[in-house]
Amino acid sequence: MEKQTGKKERIKSIDKALDLLEFLSVNEQETGITEISKKLHMGLSTVHRIITTLKSRGYVIQNQQTTKYRLGIKLFALGCAVQSTKRLVEITKPYLRQLSQVTNETANLAILEGKEVIYLDTIESPEILRTEIMAGTRTPAHCTALGKVLLAFISDGEFESLYKNDEPLTSLTSNSIASLEELKKHLKKVKEQGYALDREEYKIGINCIGVPIFGRNEAIAAISITGPASRFTLDKMEKVKDELITISKKISNQF
Amino acid sequence: MEKQTGKKERIKSIDKALDLLEFLSVNEQETGITEISKKLHMGLSTVHRIITTLKSRGYVIQNQQTTKYRLGIKLFALGCAVQSTKRLVEITKPYLRQLSQVTNETANLAILEGKEVIYLDTIESPEILRTEIMAGTRTPAHCTALGKVLLAFISDGEFESLYKNDEPLTSLTSNSIASLEELKKHLKKVKEQGYALDREEYKIGINCIGVPIFGRNEAIAAISITGPASRFTLDKMEKVKDELITISKKISNQF
DNA sequence: AAGAGGTTTCCGTAATATGGAAAAACAAAC
DNA sequence: GTTTGTTTTTCCATATTACGGAAACCTCTT
User: Is the per-residue pLDDT at A4 higher than 60?
Assistant: First the structure.
């Protein structure tokens, strides 16, 4: 819940509505008005009015049994209309298909949002044993090749403001990078190499190699090949590295 | 831009913000403040304030060159958090995979939104010649098997309010259903059969068969198999029909 | 330099969003 | 069935803020 301050010419009640939607978006459970009111420090009536407005337009749904609320389909529809992600998916799709075919593994596209990556698209391996991840999934950036490659190319200032010294890093597995110092050092190397590996850092049994997609002089997305560690070995990843970097350049030339 | 009226306990400025977001979502091009102001009948300052609020939180992006605006990534992130679509995709995914494998064609999942279907998920055929459609794509419901099967199970009242007598139907191809009378008759048959066909109605050269997914005593989504008309013939569709209906029931039992 | 068109800022005030209190609704316990 | 506790919904006076018109600023074209 990062509320932007400073600038005039903003509308408080809209900020509140967005706070509420964001709160619901990180809540796995349906939520009641009283809890929202407490968590967001808004009056019951205010919450009720906001939620009535959102509900009437399909942005929030109320469960008739529990009387609690969750996000509604309208947000999904709006989300699908976001041109930048649409364009990313459209342009990268043929390349993801190619990569998946050549490697017989799963190919992914993701973007960086805060300290997380969001998966935008995936082309699954036809193998029975394959990695599967749903578009829209969020994972901590520092635990994935995709995320590491994106973090490697953000500015120092941006990195500092995302990763504060006093906040510990999440570890998804015992292989995940666990300290800020280690992460910085690692990202420096990633930046030089132009690709990142994830060796069972995101999930035990899964390896991944990722490369950035550049646009407007920054890394705007990343693509990866990912597979079971038993089959997609370091050897295999090294073999596929150059192909990935080549395709990364081709895609980047389109932005 | 359907603005809900009647109920008290709603907040006008939030309605305005949602109007604006929805307006941008149907606009393929970036849009300026002046045009938004004209189209939505809001003052320039009002538009500016709304858009400044949205921009500061990533819901809208301004192109620095053109100074115009389009939807931002934050909406995509919120859209991905919508539990109902997440759950639909999660539950149907294994079945879509199975269907795609068995038929060697592309399998899709979609929902009804107004008079359109929105594609939620797709498992592509491995064939070189295959149908491809991106999650998030919207198409007129009456031109697709998915849409027809969903329309067949809405209430008469709902149908009447969606499809007014004075508004002509869109035709995507010369095979598309072109009149309301024809559509009603067709949907009646679809409802009895429990499945719908699309024989080059959505796009010349593409056939499709779809079935509904039920939940809470209504059709909440639909799944389909779709392929090139040259290969995915009426014969093939008839062959796959029973499998689709069986799987539709299995999925429906999970809601 | 002037003009046109669009975005951004400013400001007084009318409109509306606010929150507290009460009413209504609901579920659980007795 | 009654009571109690909790949550959602409604109401209302007023403080707050969202509004729109006008001006300033910016960019592009002639």
Answer: no
A25 touches chain B (CB under 8 A): yes
Q: Are A75 and B76 within 8 A, CB to CB?
A: no
Q: Which of B171, B210, B195, B150 is nearest to B179 (CA)?
A: B171
Average pLDDT over every residue of B200-221 = 93
CATH T-level assignment (fold) for domain B12-79 = Arc Repressor Mutant, subunit A (1.10.10)
| Interface size between A and B, measured as CB pairs under 8 A | 169
In the prediction, which pLDDT does B7 show? Answer: 53
Q: Can you give A67-82 as a three-state secondary structure string?
A: CCEEECHHHHHHHHCC
| Mean pLDDT, range B151-171, rounded to an integer | 88
Mean pLDDT of B135-156: 93
Helix (H, G, I), strand (E, B), or coil: what is residue B62?
strand
Q: Which among B53, B54, B97 is the top mutation candidate for probing chain A, defined by the most A β-carbons within 10 Å of its own β-carbon?
A: B53
CATH of A82-252, one of 1.20.58.1610, 3.20.20.70, 3.30.450.40, 3.10.180.10: 3.30.450.40
Q: Per-domain residue ranges for chain A?
A: 12-79, 82-252
